[in-house]
Amino acid sequence: MFVDSHCHLDFPGLAENLSQIFDRMSHNRVGHALCVSVNMPDWPNLIQLVEHHAQLWASVGVHPDYEDTEEPTVDDLVRKSQHPRVVAIGETGLDYYRLTGDLEWQRDRFRTHIRAAREADLPLIIHTRSSAEDTLKIMREENAHEVGGVMHCFTENWDVAQAAMEMGFYISFSGIVTFKNAVSLQEVARKISLDKMLIETDSPFLAPVPYRGKTNDPSLVIHVAEKIAELRGTSLKQIEDVTTQNFFNLFNKIN
């Protein structure tokens, strides 16, 4: 069984096609998927979705790209995290690629999420883009190692991967690892210890080769696993087994 450790099944393009997606997931042996929160106004719909499907789980958090939206407090996040289907805090982090100017609000929001994760004793789902130095700095300052988590849709270099793993974080690979120009990321996928690896789709975005440019969904996570197996010269079964076990080790509220 494969697990998609990060998707957005409540997004347009996926939410209205769930029955077909579930059929494709079953065909490709994708048994579970973690539906990741990006803002507070849409969170009730996300929870309603996972409540009706046993193979789905949820997080609670506000993505760093959402500038003009309701800011969560530590208490908000902790309270929502008590829902039995919520297994993580996030998606949170920093993104200096899409937004510019004074981004102190992003850093403040990130600190709020780490503090909530520590209080709730749940792992973090961290997004970082063009901001690795500040992301790692805040993780250290806020003692993110106390709960650990995952660096989702990882696109950074080996040094960043090592620094995150030293704080107890997993590294998650998306369809980007299948792209021809992702040479440095493929090198990270070759070098990383298997016990720190997760796979994801980040669907509906970043469909892996041979579906690049099309709408992504959790059934396609198998192609991420296939590429990693190829890069490492190992079996698909090994990648399937270790990434699934890693998922349940990290998001242990499911157990």
UniProtKB/TrEMBL annotation:
PROSITE patterns: TATD_1. Keywords: Hydrolase, Metal-binding. GO terms for cellular component: cytosol. A divalent metal cation 1 binds at H6, H8, E91, D202. It comes from the Bacteria. GO terms for molecular function: DNA nuclease activity; hydrolase activity, acting on ester bonds; metal ion binding. A divalent metal cation 2 binds at H127, H152. Pfam families: TatD_DNase (PF01026). NCBIfam families: YchF/TatD family DNA exonuclease. Belongs to the metallo-dependent hydrolases superfamily. TatD-type hydrolase family. This is TatD family hydrolase. It comes from Sheuella amnicola.
